[in-house]
Amino acid sequence: MKIAADLHTHTLLCRHAYSTVTEVIKAASEKGLEGVGLTEHGPGYPGSVGWAYFNTYRDIPREMFGIKVFCGAEANFMDLAGNLDFTAEQLSKLDIVIASCHKECSPIGSREEITAMLIAAMQNPYVDIIGHPDNPIYPVDADAIAEEAARCNKALEINNSSPAARPGSEEICRDIIRAAKRHGTLLSVGSDAHYHLVVGKFDYSLGLLEELGFPAERVVNSSMERLQGFLAAHHTKQ
Ligand SMILES: [Zn+2]
Ligand SMILES: [Zn+2]
After folding, report:
1. Quick check: is 166 in a domain?
2. For a designed S-S bond to 172, which of 65, 134, 223, 225 qualifies (C-beta 3.0 to 4.6 A apart)?
3. What is the pTM of this model?
4. If you average pLDDT over residues 205-218, what whole number do you get?
5. What's the 138 CA to ligand 2 centre distance in angstroms?
């Protein structure tokens, strides 16, 4: 399976990553990708940027070094009701939105509570992707989130940094892929790079998808055409 665009990257602006926006886009181009998503941690993550950062994306060309640039965010779950660290109006201005749980700012809860929290965020029209839903700290009912994601046309992310960032996530990730297969759910693949040399690294994610026979047609960023159609469904300005 080929991945056309890396949909999950960070820059030094979040203060726990090491490359600039320009270095990230250039690295994606040099890796032969056709697109890259800038998905900085939202304001709820300690040390990350405020809304003014995302609000100034207007100056970044949506095509650079010969590839498409999607200016977005990795929003944080801020409460068990599924509220994020952006207003709906703010999210409506972004090209791509990942919603993720981070222990630095997201509430811990039971499997039932976390499942309900993720499902609540899927009702948000601007959320495209649920980021790394394989985190053992945030247990989920894989069948329930896969079923609702399929109903809401949202993607569940198979995050290439999970083995390093979320030890013990691998079996959960397999369960999510199996559930996605059963329910016809869309998946996305992202490097979650915190340094530009990691942009476009998908070996772990693609290995799992291949092992479990997940079809490329249901991976939203397996082609630019598929990706742009998917994003257009949630973001009218695309
Ligand atoms: Zn990070
Ligand atoms: Zn994350």
Report:
1. yes
2. 134
3. 0.98
4. 98
5. 12
